[in-house]
Amino acid sequence: MNNSENDTTRLGFWSDGVFAILATLLVIEIKPPHLPHGSDAIALAAALLAPFAPAIALTISALLWLVWVWVVYGFGRDVQFAPEAAQ
Hints:
- By secondary structure, this protein is mainly alpha-helical.
- The protein has three helices and no strands.
- It folds into two domains: 1-30; 36-80.
- Helices cover 67% and strands 0% of the residues.
- The protein is flat and about 65 Å long.
- The protein starts with a helix and ends in a 12-residue tail after the last helix.
């Protein structure tokens, strides 16, 4: 293993460690929702999912973008348009 591969490996391990610490800090900050006594399961589910609504929306939009990129760049190379059909 040469020096540049060693530096790349060390950088990868360092970034993995940083992400592990950040994920741990995020999990520590999760608090249970405050619900009135006697709340039903629907209220609990709504309270648990409320903080994740923006993340869910972002995930759905990112997946739609990935599908769009796959369609445009994946299928775009295989589709051949006949110039005589356009006339």
